[in-house]
Amino acid sequence: MEISINRLEHRYMQGTPFERRALHDITLDIGDGTFLALIGHTGSGKSTLIQHFNGLLKPSDGSIKMGSTELKAGGKKQDLKPLRKKAGIVFQYPEHQLFEETVEKDIMFGPRNFGVSEEEAKKTASKVIEMVGLPQSVLTKSPFDLSGGQMRRVAIAGVLAMNPEVLILDEPTAGLDPSGRVEIMELFYNLHEKNKLTTILVTHSMEDASKYADEIAVMHKGELYLHGKPSDIFNQRELLNQAGLDVPETVQFLNKWNEVSGQNLSLSSFTIEELAKLVSLSLKKRGN
Ligand SMILES: Nc1ncnc2c1ncn2[C@@H]1O[C@H](COP(=O)(O)OP(=O)(O)OP(=O)(O)O)[C@@H](O)[C@H]1O
C-alpha cells in the first residue's frame, strides 16, 4: 500500500501553555511494497511519526494518506478506524501487551474486535502462528508459560492476524540477544519479501537499516532530514554526524580502506560478507 505524507505537523498538548512541536513539515512518499528504515537520534520524532500511520495520533496540520484513506488535521474520529486495520504496529516489547489465558485467545482478540467470526478468527490464529515460526501446540498454552522470544513471536502473530497492509516496527528487537535479534529481523524481512508488505522499521541500528531497507528516512529535530537509498544516505557521513548518527561499520571500514589503499571500492548491500569478499578480491588482484 502506498503512503503519502503531506506537510505533516504534530504538536503535543496543542493549545495549552505546554504546547510542544514534535513534527514539522514532513512530506514523504513511501511506495507500495517498500521496506523503509526510519532512523534518528532519540527525541527526533520517529515514534510520533509512526503513531500517525494507524491513527493513534492525529495531525495538527497537514495530512497522511494510507492507500485510499486520508487523515487530515481536524479530521473526524471515525476516519481513524480504517487506518487501525490497514497499519499493524509492533511496539517495543510487544509481549508486555499479552493478557489472555491462551495464546489462541490473545491472537483472536484483534480480529474479533473487528467483527470477525469465532471460527474465522481461530483459522487465522492457526495460520499466523505458523507465519511466526511457532508450532500449533503453542496455541493452547498460556502466553506467560513461553520464553521471552516466543512471547514476542506471539505478540507479532497478534498484529499479523489483523492482516495489515503496512507493517510498522518500532525497534522490534529491543532487549533480545544477538541471535534473537537476527531471527526476528529475518522473520520480518521474509514476511515483507513473501507478501510484498510495505514495512517501516524504526531502528537505532544502522546495520539493520543497511541490511534490510530499500530506503532510509532520517529524522532530526522533528524534521525529515534525509531520505533516499542506503547508498545515497551513507555518502553523506558529515550530515549524518551532524544529526548525531554515523554510517554502518562496514562503510566506515571501507572508507578507511580506500583512504589507506588509494582504491575506490564501494559496497551495495553493506554486509560483512560483501565487505570481506570485496577486500579479499582486491588483495588477490594486487597479488597478496
Ligand atoms: N506524549 C508526549 N507529550 C509531550 N511531548 C512528547 C510526548 N511524546 C513525545 N514528546 C516529545 O516529542 C519529541 C519527539 O519524541 P518521539 O518520542 O517522537 O522521538 P523518538 O525519535 O521516537 O525518540 P526515541 O528514539 O527516544 O524513541 C520529543 O521532544 C519528546 O520529548
Can you describe this structure in just a few lines?
Keywords: ATP-binding, Cell membrane, Membrane, Nucleotide-binding, Translocase, Transport. With 288 residues, this protein is α/β, with parallel strands linked by helices.
Notable features of this structure?
Rossmann fold; cobalt ion transmembrane transporter activity; four-stranded antiparallel sheet; EC 7.-.-.-; binds adenosine-5'-triphosphate; globular; single chain; 288 residues; 11 helices; six-stranded mixed sheet; 22% strand; ATP hydrolysis activity
Descriptive notes:
By secondary structure, the protein is α/β, with parallel strands linked by helices. The protein has 2 domains: 3-247, Rossmann fold, CATH 3.40.50.300; 248-288, no CATH class. It is 40% helix and 22% strand. It has helices spanning 46-53, 80-86, 103-113, 118-131, 148-160, 178-195, 206-212, 230-234, 237-242, 249-261, 272-285; strands at 3-12, 20-30, 35-40, 61-66, 69-72, 87-90, 166-170, 198-202, 215-220, 223-228. It is built from 11 helices and 10 strands. The model has no long low-confidence stretch (mean pLDDT 91). The chain has a 6-stranded mixed beta sheet with strand order 6-7-8-3-9-10, sandwiched between helices. It starts with a strand and ends with a helix. The chain is globular. Helix 3 crosses helix 4, helix 3 (103-113) runs parallel beside helix 5 and helix 4 (118-131) crosses helix 5 (148-160). The site of adenosine-5'-triphosphate has 12 residues, from strand 2 and helix 1.
